[in-house]
Amino acid sequence: MRRLHTCTAKYGTPPLVSSTGGLVDTVKEGITGFHMGHMDLDELTQGDVDAVAATVVRAAAAHKSGQWEAMVHAAINQDLSWAKPAKKWEAVLEELKFGCPRAPAKKAEVATPVQEPAPKRAAATARR
Fold first, then answer.
1. How many helices (H) and strands (E) are present in the chain, helices listed first?
2. pLDDT tens for residues 118-128?
3. Sorting pLDDT into bands at 50, 70 and 90, what band is 8?
4. Structural domain boundaries of the chain?
5. Where is this region: Disordered (predicted)?
6. pLDDT value at position 125?
7. What are the residues whose beta carbons fall under 8 Å from the beta carbon of 125, sequence distance 6 or more?
8. Exposed / middle / buried, residue 12 (Cβ in 10 Å: 0-12, 13-18, 19+)
């Protein structure tokens, strides 16, 4: 799924994604795409179907409002390389292995992505 998301970002298509794995970090709700919330594709529920429909409605509203154009530019311009995450993991490993005093500062140099929570789903909350 990450590869598909990378392709959609490269060509400026804000994705609609299930909130799982690396997509939680790379797709920023309402900025570079839309989150449908967590769902189990092997056991879809009516709540999951409703979440997909609600996400499509939010995406259509963004397209009509002009927000879509800003999302396209944000998607195209985001850095999806491993350079920054690798630097942070290197610092974590240095700190664990060697007790490196510079490691905390090195980790702090790399911002952790801020993710707005996906809209809550009443049905999903009740069953999970």
1. 7, 2
2. 455 444 444 44
3. low
4. 2-80+114-127
5. 107-128
6. 44
7. none
8. middle
CB neighbours (10 Å) of residue 70? 15
86-119 pLDDT, tens digit each:
877 787 788 777 776 766 676 666 665 554 444 5
| Alpha-carbon gap, residue 35 to 28, rounded angstroms | 8
Residue 90 identity (one-letter amino acid)? E
Distance CA 20, CA 108 (A): 25
CA-to-CA dists, residue 43 to 38, 47, 49, 120, 123, angstroms: 12, 11, 11, 19, 14
pLDDT tens, 42-79?
898 999 999 999 999 999 999 999 899 999 988 888 87
Q: Are 48 and 20 in contact (CB under 8 A)?
A: no
The answer to whether 22 and 61 are in contact (CB under 8 A) is no
Residue 91: both structure tokens together: 């610092």
Q: Which residue has the tokens 């298509």?
A: 13
Q: What are phi and psi of 39, to 5 degrees?
A: -150, 150
